[in-house]
Amino acid sequence: MTVQPIRLFGDPVLRTAAVEVTDFDAELRTLVKDLWETMRDAGGAGLAAPQLGVGLRVFTYHCDGFAGHLVNPTFDVVGEEFQDGPEGCLSIPGMSWDCRRHLHVVAKGWNMHGDPVEVEGSDLLARCIQHETDHLDGVLFLDRLDAETRKDAMKAIRQAEWFDGTVPTLKQSPHPLFGRAN
């Protein structure tokens, strides 16, 4: 278990869709432990493998009293309610903006040993599941912001001390109505 450096906005790995895990082996268990240690060290609610530069569909989470990890996650929206609220990202340190997400979701996937897992989440946990699944699709929460907020966010990022000047193109999530300002 090692705390790893977190990839920052502008790194191409954050805009690349991750591939499914096929081997539930010691290497995967090490990755999950590294994700966990790095997430906890950085004080985050979740962390996806691409944020460590690993293009696999894995993330860890620790929020609203729930903690764990999901391998090859999918999720279904429960109901039609949305939530608007502040959202940040360990790959965009020290910044957050209001983002619209589904209020309730049920995520399904596997644990690091290949056992099936189901996680039902509302509020912050639902936001976290959606956010981290977006990472696995190469989508950042900035892509979910309304046009005016995104413009303000990009201005703030360009002025951030950690920003290296690389601005990737914005992407659309494959998940319909995923956090859009409807």
From TrEMBL:
Catalytic residues (positions): E132
Cofactor: binding comment: Binds 1 Fe(2+) ion.
Keyword check for Amino-acid biosynthesis: no
Enzyme Commission no: 3.5.1.88
Gene: def
PANTHER family (alphabetical): PEPTIDE DEFORMYLASE (PTHR10458), PEPTIDE DEFORMYLASE, MITOCHONDRIAL (PTHR10458:SF2)
One of the GO BP terms on file: translation
Family in the record: Belongs to the polypeptide deformylase family.
Cofactor(s) this protein cannot do without: Fe(2+)
Keywords: Hydrolase, Iron, Metal-binding, Protein biosynthesis
Protein name in the entry: Peptide deformylase
Gene3D superfamilies in the record: Peptide deformylase
Catalytic activity: N-terminal N-formyl-L-methionyl-[peptide] + H2O = N-terminal L-methionyl-[peptide] + formate
GO terms assigned for molecular function: metal ion binding; peptide deformylase activity
